[in-house]
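Good morning C.,

I know you're traveling, so I'll keep this short. The sequence:
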Amino acid sequence: MSPAAASKRQAELLKQEGNAFFKKDRISAAIDAYTGAITLCPNVAVYWTNRALCYKRRNEWLKVEENCRMAIRLDSHSVKAHYMLGLALLNRDELTEGIKELEKSLELGRGAHPASYMVEEIWQELSKAKYIEWESLSRERVCQLHMLKEACKQALRNYNSLDNPAAYAPEEQLNELEEVFQKAAKSDIPAEVPDHLCCKITLDIFRDPVITPSGITYERAVLLDHLHRVGKFDPVTREALEPHQLIPNLAIKEAVHAFLSEHGWAYRMR
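The tokens, ready to paste straight into the viewer:
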């Protein structure tokens, strides 16, 4: 056996040891094992992501970030690396960059294993981050609208007092002004999500919608789970259905994206 092959084999054994230590919650021992594997074969991305997972367990987010960035250099399609990097950035209050990494990991995860537990976990973290982002922007908008409304009211008073300094703005004008600003703030007020943007099984807003030959749109992961656990038929029409027959519903996906862009509060309702 060549020295390179021997190093590769030893590195894999160390990775397996690290996995066993991690399952037993022996995090320090797992880190040592993964570090040994990295020393022998530094160009294997999974060794870096496994060690990053250990640091994540210990909330050592700077080390999580360092290991994930190295893993991404080696494998730009690593779902776990982008996911944990996103979490690390969020923990450093780098909301925008963290969201970008979570979105990347979700995109990669959906392509590889659309029904996996990890896709759901990524989505939950992304939803929380997007909701926090919306809350911050919403507070800014509310403050700006309030200041603008008060400025408009004062402008009305000033205009109406040109001929009569003691006059006030007519009630009708103030009511119209109030109505305008209520409409402007409407998108930030939680309401019902339109039915056509929600899955017929989960009743939640779509994340990854697919359409069946019968013309009904479902959430991909939920429908795949139904086909696997219950039977290969459409849940509503009961017609025979195979996974390969599912087609992404890009129109609904775009509509959901547009709705969430305008109504960030809906992330919390998922």
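Safe travels,
E.
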